[in-house]
Amino acid sequence: AHQWRGVIREYIDRLPVEDSDTIVTLGEGGTPLVFAPALSAETGNQVYLKVEGMNPTGSFKDRGMTMAMTAAVNSGAKAVVCASTGNTSASAAAYAKQAGLTCAVLVPDGKISMGKLSQAVAHGAKIIQVDGNFDNCLDVARKLSENYPVFLVNSVNPARIEGQKTGSFEVVDFLGDAPDYHLLPVGNAGNITAYWRGYKEYSTEFVNQQGQTLAPVATKTPIMWGFQAAGAAPIVAGHPVLEPETIATAIRIGNPASWQQAEAARDESGGLIEAVSDDEILEAHRWLSSREGVFVEPASAAGAAGLLKHHRAGTAPTGKTIVITVTGHGLKDPEWAIKGAGEGATPVQVGFDVVSVADALGLK
Ligand code: F0G
After folding, report:
1. Which of 103, 110, 158, 351 is 20 to 30 A away from residue 270, measured at CA?
2. Is 85's C-beta closer than 6 angstroms to any atom of ligand 1?
3. What is the Cα–Cα distance from 295 to 280, expressed in whole angstroms?
4. What share of the chain in percent tops pLDDT 70?
């Protein structure tokens, strides 16, 4: 049987890596594309979820981090830094350990989930809580890397985008062609940038860095639909949001680094970038866990929230193949599952005899 070797080795002919490079990998990528029966039935489409929570640190960030950390090691770096709402820091902390580098993470004041923070702690990152939001953290991280001997592993590093574009390759390899639509959350806008690059590269002849021309794999590119949280929707508003607010802390970002690239993905694909409210995000979050069997963190549900919103407005497609990237694992931020479950969150307590358990279950 074939064992998945991580995105660099699987897609080496399409990534800017030298043969002589030491590859830093935790076996990321190769995540399942899961058919979503309830969303498909509800909307009249073939809907699939790209379940990125199955990556080694539980989010899509690992696809970019294997590339960024490989670049860091091969450039002789000794230390890396990132700003993060939590998932990037968890990923950077883990990959830095394999690379033998020290890692500093800048996180916003008080708005990072316990699951993510515990990962950075477990992997021994130096955690700096900055008195500000993600945008402030990224600003400081950039300046730090420009003025001190630390290597920046945020998605402003082009290696990150290169790694993350493999998500599209996997979708096409699985489905046999590109889907009609691709939906995903938008925060700092690196992932929509990366997916669009991947789809474009897979649908045309691609000249790689060895000078080989690779034949197209897909016959088309999808329409890209991106969704920001309503309280943190600068691309929708057309200007930066100074104080972004949303329960979806992963995408609580007011001035995305890849803003222009995200707009290019939207416009070149004939797509859209819109806002979904926190209530719509939480409804989709619960839909995914209670109806599809897929547990994600709140921000990860923004794409599904967008599809449901369009379906109800009568503006969703029908009869199409739709892929939704669900970006991070539900265990990252489990409190929302408990909060959303109401009485269902409290276990029924009984004694240790079969009849009591059968009674509690309504069995006769
Ligand atoms: N979903 C999750 C779970 C995320 O963690 C992020 C970004 C996004 C979606 C948005 O992706 O930024 O590429 O548009 N999290 C970053 C972090 C900001 O620091 O972990 P994007």
Report:
1. 158
2. yes
3. 16
4. 100
